[in-house]
């Protein structure tokens, strides 16, 4: 577990409203344009593309290439192109609804639905050379890792680091590191025990009886108690709460994006969607249970000789 104050960040990703996104090398998928994408069902994240599998009995893949990037830098040097290679993840579940929604603005990432996505990132400078990240200088924030644990939706949104980096848990976050490379929250972190959707709703929201009706008798035991309001909105200062980190090392990063629901009780419905958002603003570690700095003074009397 790391404290945000201890990290040195040399990678910067900011909003790229003029970025261009191209979907290419398509295999067993349909691609259609999309408008006014809302990956958290709240914030308008602009236009992009929908990608859907054609035949779920076969493998599928496509490349998402972002160009005309103006604000993405590493050690002050501009990165102008990023390629994300998507494919069905071998050994992971997927179905006929294997689906992705990608925003033209790389800052907002994408939404995944209906099964795991294997993704390999490549980064390129203006001269076409590949970026090679030095250990301890570049971190990706994996944000919006929701966990829903109700009868009608059970799942832990998860990012698993395969190569090119190391997963890190962020101090104060509900997300922890599992099995050495998996980032997700063990307990529910989006709907509180009063029936409020705390991840996107404010303090003036009211309990939702439909949510309450799908609670388990031990809902309090499987739900986090310290959820900030609206932590899963695009501009929230509390995005740390649903975030983990990936310390980059090398040129390519490979991850698997999926929803873990193999632990769901019998008779529950699986949750199989997530907003995958990779940024570089490391959320500030909150001042909770942080030890106070104590300074001890040792006085020494020195006799001066004249």
Automatic annotation (TrEMBL):
Pfam families: GbpC (PF08363). This is Glucan-binding protein C/Surface antigen I/II V-domain domain-containing protein. Residues 58-260 form the Glucan-binding protein C/Surface antigen I/II V-domain domain. InterPro entries: Glucan-bd_C/Surface_Ag-I/II_V, SA_I/II_PAC_V_sf. The lineage of its organism: Bacteria, Bacillati, Bacillota, Bacilli, Lactobacillales. It comes from the Bacteria.
């Amino acid at each position: 577990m790391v404290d945000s104050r201890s990290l040195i960040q040399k990678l910067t990703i900011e909003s790229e409203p003029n970025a261009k996104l191209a979907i290419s090398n398509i295999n067993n998928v349909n691609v259609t344009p999309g408008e006014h994408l809302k990956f958290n069902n709240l914030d308008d994240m602009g236009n992009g593309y929908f990608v859907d599998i054609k035949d779920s009995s076969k493998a599928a893949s496509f490349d998402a290439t972002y160009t005309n990037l103006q604000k993405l830098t590493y050690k002050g040097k501009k990165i102008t192109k990023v390629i994300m290679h998507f494919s069905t993840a071998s050994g992971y579940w997927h179905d006929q609804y294997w689906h992705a929604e990608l925003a033209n603005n790389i800052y907002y990432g994408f939404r995944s639905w209906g099964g795991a996505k294997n993704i390999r990132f490549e980064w390129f400078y203006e001269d076409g050379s590949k970026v090679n990240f030095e250990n301890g200088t570049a971190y990706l924030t994996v944000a919006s890792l929701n966990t829903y644990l109700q009868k009608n939706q059970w799942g832990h949104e998860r990012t698993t680091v395969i190569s090119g980096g190391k997963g890190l848990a962020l101090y104060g976050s509900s997300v922890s590191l599992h099995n050495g490379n998996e980032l997700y929250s063990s307990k529910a972190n989006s709907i509180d025990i009063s029936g409020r959707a705390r991840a996107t709703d404010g303090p003036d929201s009211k309990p939702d009886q439909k949510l309450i009706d799908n609670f388990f008798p031990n809902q309090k035991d499987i739900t986090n108690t310290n959820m900030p309001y609206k932590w899963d909105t695009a501009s929230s200062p509390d995005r740390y709460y649903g975030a983990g980190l990936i310390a980059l090392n090398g040129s390519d990063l490979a991850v698997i994006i999926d929803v873990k629901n193999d632990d769901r009780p019998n008779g529950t419905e699986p949750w199989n969607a997530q907003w995958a958002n990779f940024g570089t603003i490391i959320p500030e570690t909150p001042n909770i249970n942080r030890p106070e700095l104590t300074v001890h003074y040792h006085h020494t009397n020195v006799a001066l000789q004249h």
